[in-house]
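User: Here's a chain of 200 residues. Predict its fold as tokens.
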Amino acid sequence: MQDPEPTKNDGVSRTGGAMKLTDLVFIDTETTGLDPRQHELLEISVVRVHQTWVPNEKPVFTVIDEWSTRVRPDNIMTADPASLRVNGYSATGWANATPIREALEEFSKHVEGAIMVAHNVAFDAGFIDTYLAVHEMPNKMHYHRLDTVSMAYAKLHDSGVTRYSLGELCKHFGIVNEHAHTALSDARACFELFKKLMDL
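Assistant: Prediction complete.
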């Protein structure tokens, strides 16, 4: 099936089809565990990026929006203690967190029409898809998704890299992620990793 071409163009000369005319949203979630069927979202962050592709030049990726919120869990008793340690959850730290439905409504505004990018996209998409479905809300993102783990595996197979976590790849490329395992910091790090991989 051929991708539909966009109906509008802002006049910038680009190569490629609809994907290169579509914003990217770098998304990271923090959760109470690994299984979206029983665990919950604790934090969602979005870095929205505009793509500019000009023939015979490197693409330019420009941040046009950032958004982040902590999400109030409804049943913290189902949480995996190891996950809570990793993401720094505390009852006081989440005292003013956003209810899940409100968080999803705001999330949808920031990602509408854009292509989701994440590090191990299946994990974050699994939670997003599950909770949108639970709350009977449409997924407003573009149907394509990009995964920086897959990109790294393809581009670094002969580089000596053997581990593909976000932390290890940040070390490999010298990317500073001062607040790892917080959603906005990890979403920003994923964007920086994406740019490094695109330059290879």
